[in-house]
Amino acid sequence: MKESENNNTKTIDAEIRNLWSESINYRDHRQKSNDEIYDFIIVGAGTAGCLLARELIYNVPNVNILVLEAGPPSAQVNDMMRLPCTFPAAYRAKDQKMPSITEPTKEVLNKGFTYPRGKVIGGCSTVNAMVYIRGQKADYDSWAAQGPEYKIWDYDHCLEAVENNARENPDEEFKKYHGFNGLLHVQDSPTDSYEVTKDFIKVANNLGIPCNKDFNGDRQNGAGKYQALGRPYGLASGVAKIIAVNVKSCAHMLSIIWDEEKEDENIAIGVKYFCNGGVRNAYIAPKGEVIICGGAINSAQILMLSGIGLKNNLEANNIKDHPLCMVTGKISIPNNTSQFHTWCSGMKLGMIYKGNAKGKFPSHEEFLDEHPDIQSYVTTIVYDPIINEYVNSKQCPPNFETVTSVSVLNPPLSAGHLELCSSNSFMQPKIFLNYYEKPEDLYRMMSSLKLLREILKQPSLSTVWGIKELGFNDEFGKWCSVDEEMSDEDWERYIRGKSYTSFHPCGTVKMAPESQGGCVNHRLQVYGTKNLRVVDASIFPNVSNGNTNAPVAMVAWRASRIIKEEYLKK
Ligand SMILES: Cc1cc2nc3c(=O)[nH]c(=O)nc-3n(C[C@H](O)[C@H](O)[C@H](O)COP(=O)(O)OP(=O)(O)OC[C@H]3O[C@@H](n4cnc5c(N)ncnc54)[C@H](O)[C@@H]3O)c2cc1C
């Protein structure tokens, strides 16, 4: 190391030491006992928790913050988990039997599956697929329509605030719908999409789905390339700021500590958590608050376990998620694109349109409808569980290449629920998703899969790539009752047997008036409590018509402004 660099490092080290000891003195001065005291205790360092901590520390002067994260720091996470869509915290969505929609005298099974969440600093943003579709104006305007005080949540107040779009030379139209100075990095996907996926989009265009160059622009429908989220999130970049945020990883919050002297008022004064083999208490300072950012499953669980007055609403409350289902085609024309199964081949291209509510092939009007409800991706990753098993077996030849198109129901009418299975907060709650309980959900999904199946049969996919559909009436599945034809009953079995989550649970601690089943008010304060807020995907009044990471970031950004305003007034 050169001498000048060496001196520089020493100065920075000294600066860090000074700042550190200043912060310890400050903390000691405030602490009257051995318990830890903070202005804000944030539980969960996922998308919301990280962004909220970052915004509070930069915007509210002289506060100290504790962030508790049940998972490890992302630096300790192995390379496997760094890949998008590898699943560090797998929960399980339960098997569910329900009456068939197409044959009401029969019972059908929604097959359960592993339900991944990111348990790590960064939460699900660490493992997500990075697709950036932030939803329709109408989604957020419906949040705002719940009362005059909910106006702060309308579209115009929301998403542009957090976005930092890196599109080069954006035109005036693009600038109208995007932010360029926020924290959430968004970029165009690289241009190296595989030819077969590009051809899929060309075929979709030929069938009448228009091109769309910006799915987050004035209209959502069409076919084209999705923009992608950048990663990773940072809690803070300045040394002084980092010192004021105490981030504890592998620190699992056990329960809220309530003020026992005012038992009836449900005043949160701190949290109990498990860390380094022991149980600890952390308390909030007089103006402080506890902010739960545990994500849609765990925030609801934490509140249910705390057993306060909102129990009834929570149990009645819904978990909303976007179900997905897929069709797969085998690429038969030999090629030497041996990287087909790598991650980067996925999720860059797709289309958005309206599914037919009676299960028919979507009409031209449905392709042009400006309130679409199906988001499809095309990828060379295998999604179908049965085909995937084959791909990973010894029987699978090395040149076995596929293209898959996945449809996501955006948003479903059906809603599920969570159930506590233990008072132990380490035990995951039971997840019942209730996919396709409402007939329209099933029929819209059926309609979109009919379209995807048809696309696979069109030239150039059938000619240049020799694509043959897989999994309908072959060794991977016997779903057709007659030859290639699928009856509605066949489709129902197919869809229920193969559906999976698109990882977007939300709505379990809904922001809504209490009389409408809400658990938090428009300022995200938990009804019937003091000093307690929830800030994450669980507060969504309804699931947005797109991916959820950006809306969660928006919720955290908005919450930071609300919290700052109230803190400075106290
Ligand atoms: C595999 C996958 C792919 C995805 N792909 C996309 C995509 O392409 N585009 C998109 O927009 N969205 C995507 N999403 C969804 C998006 O990432 C989530 O909606 C978003 O990250 C949720 O943020 P959150 O803050 O609500 O919760 P999370 O990010 O889940 O954060 C919650 C955090 O709280 C911690 N926690 C929970 N309980 C406790 C406790 N008791 N004590 C301490 N800590 C606790 C958890 O460990 C976790 O780190 C994907 C999600 C997954 C899982």
UniProtKB/TrEMBL annotation:
Membership in a protein family: Belongs to the GMC oxidoreductase family.
PANTHER family associated with the record: CHOLINE DEHYDROGENASE, MITOCHONDRIAL, GLUCOSE-METHANOL-CHOLINE GMC OXIDOREDUCTASE
Organism ancestry: Eukaryota, Fungi, Fungi incertae sedis, Mucoromycota, Glomeromycotina
A Pfam family reported for this protein in Swiss-Prot or TrEMBL: GMC_oxred_N
Coiled coil (residue ranges): none
Keyword DNA-binding assigned: no
Residues covered by the Glucose-methanol-choline oxidoreductase N-terminal domain: 38-323
Keywords for the protein's UniProt record, in alphabetical order: FAD, Flavoprotein
Residues that bind FAD: V120, N128, A129, M130, V131
Cofactor: FAD
Single Gene Ontology MF annotation: oxidoreductase activity, acting on CH-OH group of donors
Annotated Glucose-methanol-choline oxidoreductase C-terminal domain residues: 412-556
InterPro entries found in the cross-reference section: FAD/NAD-bd_sf, GMC_OxRdtase, GMC_OxRdtase_N, GMC_OxRtase_C
Identification of the protein by name: 4687_t:CDS:1
Top-level taxon: Eukaryota
